[in-house]
Amino acid sequence: MTNSTASNSNVSSTLCAGIDWQRGQQLREQERATFLKNNPKSCALAERAGQHLLFGVPMHWMTDWSTPFSLTVNTANGATLSDADGHRYVDFCLGDTGAMFGHSPAPVAKALAKQASEGYTSMMASEDAVIVAEELARRFELPVWQFALSASDANRFVIRWIRAATGRSKILVFNGCYHGTVDDVFVDLVDGKPKQRDSLLGQVTDLTANTVVVEFNDLVALEKALAQEDVACVLAEPVMTNIGMVLPAPGYWEAARKIIQRYGTQLVIDETHTISSGPGGYAVLNGLKPDAIVLGKPIGGGVPCAVYGFTKELAQRVEQAKRHAPPGHSGVGTTLTANMLTMAAMRANLTEVMTDAAYQKMLALAGQLAVGLRAVIADNKLPWCVTQVGARTEFQFCSQPPINGSAAELILDSELEKIVHLFLLNRGILITPFHNMMLVCPQTTEDDIAHFLNVFNQCLRLLKSA
């Protein structure tokens, strides 16, 4: 899941040039009425859910969709979903990367069915774990790996390991970042100072004591923050995705890598979203050479799991720290970590689903989508841009892609997003509820993209000023 740090429903007329807000409000009410009329079974299920589920949904962020009530999914296969009322949707959300390679990939489903009769979990090693680790080392060019059940846990474990290995307590993140539910990263830059996010519930310690935050693409700020030589690791997505996509400036990561090494800090790259770039992720494709990589939800074809890998040098330091620690629980890992069912899914997904051929198709389709989006936006004379990172594409409410988290936050417009998203949904198209991000999978077709662009164009024409 991706979620923004803030939402701005009162974007200035400069940013929303060309949008008729009276038309927008009318369209929103029309689309809400259409959704209510067309989804009686989902409505009834939502009313039942309200009796026994907190916030009326299995997880509270499911209320963040643009719909008046939660849509109930019935089946998901390939690039499509069906709901309780029998509607079919072309899915460009794909579980916000959890199903990046399509829903229920056949090799993964087959592996799960087989493993289901041979044991789910044993708290011991399996052959699949060896094969998965070998494949991870080949793809990501890091030799030593461990497992977790989510990217949140993997990030949490990596931070803990690196703090132990380096003897340093601080970490550095970028303003507006997303790394799951790791408490340490819920710090933003406000008026040039670190500030714990107001949205973080139940946190009783001061996160700013051990979390340093700077703007993405700011090399001067990065060097100043690391110069004290007390930062254990820089934890970063190579392309920011939480607050809308923010691309690295040309040469940024090459220079940043040198700064990070100069001060003895470890670089951890979170590829959970940017695995859309290619079979080895963004880091391998662009030669980043991190000290550690974290990768979550897409790696098991949608089955809850995550992995993290280290360089040989960092792995040796981590092992040494553990061996010299007192006996007892390290705070790393859970009983179900690397369970047999998950490992079987991961092996099948890595070896049979996340193939070079699959990526070639996905990247080509995403390229078509990006070109089409730019054409539709240009035809409607709107000052919006389109950003693409592999199979991930996003349109943003600004003429040029934002350069950092603060710039990205200024263009957020949850009200406009919800109008567009609901219009698409009512016509059989699903995109992420957060921002305007789309993914394609190997089962996405050119007709799916053409349908999306046609409906998107219809929406923009209705929203445009006369």
UniProtKB/TrEMBL annotation:
Lineage summary: Bacteria, Pseudomonadati, Pseudomonadota, Betaproteobacteria, Burkholderiales
Keyword check for Cell inner membrane: no
InterPro entries, A to Z: Aminotrans_3 (IPR005814), PyrdxlP-dep_Trfase (IPR015424), PyrdxlP-dep_Trfase_major (IPR015421), PyrdxlP-dep_Trfase_small (IPR015422)
Keyword Ubl conjugation: no
Cofactor: pyridoxal 5'-phosphate
Domain of life (superkingdom): Bacteria
Record protein name field: Aspartate aminotransferase family protein
Gene3D superfamilies per UniProt: Aspartate Aminotransferase, domain 1 (3.90.1150.10), Type I PLP-dependent aspartate aminotransferase-like (Major domain) (3.40.640.10)
NCBIfam families: PRK07046.1
Species of origin: Sapientia aquatica
Annotated Pfam families: Aminotran_3 (PF00202)
Family, as annotated: Belongs to the class-III pyridoxal-phosphate-dependent aminotransferase family.
Keyword annotations from UniProtKB, A to Z: Aminotransferase, Pyridoxal phosphate, Transferase
GO MF annotations in UniProt: pyridoxal phosphate binding; transaminase activity
